[in-house]
Amino acid sequence: MNPIRLAPSLLSADFARLGEEVRAIEAAGADLVHFDVMDNHYVPNLTMGPMVCEAIRPHVRIPIDVHLMVEPVDALIPLFAKAGANLITFHPEASRHVDRSLQLIRDHGCKAGLAFNPATPLGYMEHAMDKLDLVLLMGVNPGFGGQRFIGSTLLKLAEARRRIDAHHARGGQPVWLEVDGGVKLDNIAAIVQAGADTLVAGSAVFGAPDNDGGYHTVMRLLREHARGA
Predict the structure, then answer these.
(1) Is residue 99 annotated as part of the catalytic site, yes or no?
(2) Catalytic residue among 65, 133, 180, 197
(3) What is the per-residue pLDDT for 4?
(4) pLDDT of residue 144
(5) pLDDT along the chain (229 residues), means of 10
(6) In this structure, how many other beta carbons lie within 10 angstroms of the beta carbon of residue 216?
(7) Strand partners, 115
(8) Helix or strand or coil: residue 24?
């Protein structure tokens, strides 16, 4: 079984105290900080930019996983790399030259990923697999936190896992398979069973009640449910 990585999404954090929030999730056992970047153009919301990434970088040792929901993407890649990102993922529809954008991420010392919306086909994977470190499948339509997981994502996950495993069997590099959107305690086992090894959870983590152990408890429960798959 692939190791399970948990990546709490700052989209659901308290923006008034982000430094405290990222320190808290790292202390609770997070493997990554998931950083959602939205431009009110590619998606109908506006969130955080490179300056915020740079501000939280000194507060954590774990990698920062930047998810670009913007169009175009190339101008922002060097800025986020300089701001302290470790992984940068973008949507293929948002780049005029997907291969070039992936190489640009790698040239700036970061791991590179492609993100697929619920209705976006996986075909881009086949033509870019040699440059991928991460494939991200959206379990919701991007733009807002707290949405319900789209069940058909499980079938798409299984197909993405099949393609990744076939690539690895041919001698290719390891590729993480991440799911973002709607990940909760009641579905994380099914998501992992379908093939995911990296789980983004926003409201499931940051909405945890303080009187029930807060982030430590929900992170432990998410990991236990995931391992139970």
Answers:
(1) no
(2) 180
(3) 96
(4) 78
(5) 90 94 96 97 92 97 98 97 98 96 98 97 94 97 84 97 97 97 95 97 88 84 90
(6) 15
(7) 136
(8) helix
Distance CA 152, CA 159 (A): 11
Locate 158 and state its tokens: 């299984």
**Sign of the CA dihedral 100, 38, 82, 113?**
negative
* Whole-number pLDDT of residue 208: 84
Q: What is the CATH number of domain 5-227?
A: 3.20.20.70
Tokens 């495993």, located at residue: 165
Choose the catalytic residue: 31, 36, 39, 133. 36
Tokens of 129: 């697999």
User: By C-alpha distance, which of 92, 85, 182, 79 is closest to 129?
Assistant: 92
Query: Which backbone phi and psi does 6 adopt, to 5 degrees?
Result: -110, 130
Residue-range domain boundaries for the chain: 5-227
The reply to whether 107 belongs to the active site is: no
Q: How far is CA 85 from the centre of its chain?
A: 12
**HSE (side-chain half, CA atoms, 13 Å) at 31:** 15
pLDDT score for 129: 96
Using CA atoms, how far apart are residues 141 and 116, in angstroms rounded to an integer? 10
